[in-house]
Amino acid sequence: MNFVINLKTITLANGYSLSFDFPIKNTLTINDIIVIVVESPFDVIYRQNVFAIKTTGDFLWRIDDIELCYTGNENCFYVDAELNDKNELILYNWCDSAVIVEPETGDIIRKYQTK
What we know:
- The chain is an all-beta fold and 115 residues long.
- It has one domain (3-113): Thrombin, subunit H, CATH 2.40.10.
- It has strands spanning 3-6, 9-12, 17-19, 24-30, 33-38, 50-54, 59-62, 78-83, 89-93, 97-101, 108-113.
- It starts with a strand and ends with a strand.
């Protein structure tokens, strides 16, 4: 791990720090990319809570606010990120949807319902 998390701030090995509005919930490192999932409070609509930066500190993307499979809740924030068996980046949200994302660009490759 080439970084340290302190509640809302990530500090990289080179000393670069990036702070968010809410605590960092989870990170996933893919080669030289750090995917950051920020906690989203239930009382705040904050659906674009996934970011990606390079290990050097260069900002890559923030997840787009896209139409998801489930439309019954306005606050469908992301809760986790992982790599599947095909080495694809998957983001899971609170409302039983998942999106496959291109790690370098944040482009959505496809989405599906998880339940």
